[in-house]
C-alpha cells in the first residue's frame, strides 16, 4: 500500500523542503522505498538540499510532456539506496503542470514506491494545488508565529475542499508539524505554545522540531538533517515524526541537544 | 518595588497572538471561498436577517465564532439584544438587557 504525502504550509520559509528531505530520508533509512517530488516549478530547491543539484538531467515537466521517461528523470540517492528524487523544472513555468500529466506521474510513482512525498511550493496557486491534489495525507508545516498559523489554517481549508480525496467525499489525513520551536521562548510566553497552535488548528500533532543550527549546517552540505547530523535534536525529532507517519504510537516530546545525563533525564514532555 | 512591578507589568505576547488569531480565523473561516464554509456564511447571513427583522441589533454587539473540530464544526452567533420589549426597528430601545446570547449551532 503506497502512500502519497504532501508537505505543505501556505507560507514560505517555514521548512517544507527541509521537512520533505528529512522525513523522506528517515523513512528510507527505516527500510521504506521513498521518492521525493519537487513541485516548486521555477524555484526548485529540493535538489540542492539533497545535494543532487549537479545530477539533474530531466525533471518533472520533462516527464509530464513526454520528453523523458520516469526512470531517466529519477535521481537515486547515493547515501540511502531506497531514496529517490524527482526534481522540478527550473526554467519552465507552472502552467506546464497539467492535471492529467501530474495524475499520470503520481500513478506511476505509486506503483514503484512505498512513499511518494510531494514538496509543495509556497502559496495557494497552481503549484501548491497540484502538489496536494492527489495526496492521501498531508503534513502541514507550521512555525509558532501568527502569519504561519493563519496560512496553515487556509491550507487546511483547501485540503478539505479542493483535493481529489475531498471531492470524493473522503477524509484527508492531516498532521501538524511544528518547526523552529524554541521551548524556552514558549515557556516565557513569548512564542505561541504547542497547545495554542493545536487548539487553533485542531489537527493531530506529528512532531515538534526544535530550532537548531544543525538544520542549516545540513543544508549547507547538501544532506537531509537526518543523514548529516543524525544525533542532533532536530534529526531525532524528524526520525520520531517519520515513525509516527509509518503508524507507530510514540509520545510527542521536544528533543533537546544532548549535553549530558541531566538533559536526557529531564527531556520535556508535551501533550 | 519598581523592579517587582516591572516584572509583573511585562505581558507575555503569546496569549495576545493566540487571541488575535482566534478572532481573525473565526472570521476568515466563515468568509473562506470553499464550498463547506459557504454554507456557514449563508447561515450566518440569514440568521442575522431574521434577528434584524424583529429586533434592533448593534453590529458591534454581534460575535460570530466558527470552531472547526475533528468531527463537526460549530457556528456560534452571540447577539447582544437590547430589551426584548415591543420595539419597532429604528426606535431606540430604552431598556438595555445585560446580555442575551442567541446561540445558533450547526453540527
From TrEMBL, chain A:
What Gene Ontology terms describe where this protein resides (cellular component)? cytoplasmic side of plasma membrane; cytosol
Keywords tagged on the record: ATP-binding, Cell cycle, Cell division, Nucleotide-binding, Septation
The record ties this protein, via Pfam families, to: CbiA
One GO BP annotation of this record: negative regulation of cell division
Q: Which InterPro entries match?
A: CobQ/CobB/MinD/ParA_Nub-bd_dom (IPR002586), MinD (IPR010223), MinD_FleN (IPR025501), P-loop_NTPase (IPR027417), ParA/MinD_ATPase (IPR050625)
Q: Which residues form a coiled coil?
A: none
In which residues is ATP bound?
11-18
Judging by the UniProt lineage, the source's domain of life is Bacteria
Show the GO MF annotations. Answer: ATP binding; ATP hydrolysis activity
Can you give the residue ranges of the CobQ/CobB/MinD/ParA nucleotide binding domain?
5-225
Family listed: Belongs to the ParA family. MinD subfamily.
Please give the subunit comment from the record. Answer: Interacts with MinC and FtsZ.
Give the protein's function: ATPase required for the correct placement of the division site. Cell division inhibitors MinC and MinD act in concert to form an inhibitor capable of blocking formation of the polar Z ring septums. Rapidly oscillates between the poles of the cell to destabilize FtsZ filaments that have formed before they mature into polar Z rings.
PANTHER family registered for this protein in UniProt: SEPTUM SITE-DETERMINING PROTEIN MIND HOMOLOG, CHLOROPLASTIC (PTHR43384:SF6), SEPTUM SITE-DETERMINING PROTEIN MIND HOMOLOG, CHLOROPLASTIC-RELATED (PTHR43384)
Q: What is this protein called?
A: Septum site-determining protein MinD
Q: Which organism is it from?
A: Acetobacter persici
Gene name as annotated: minD
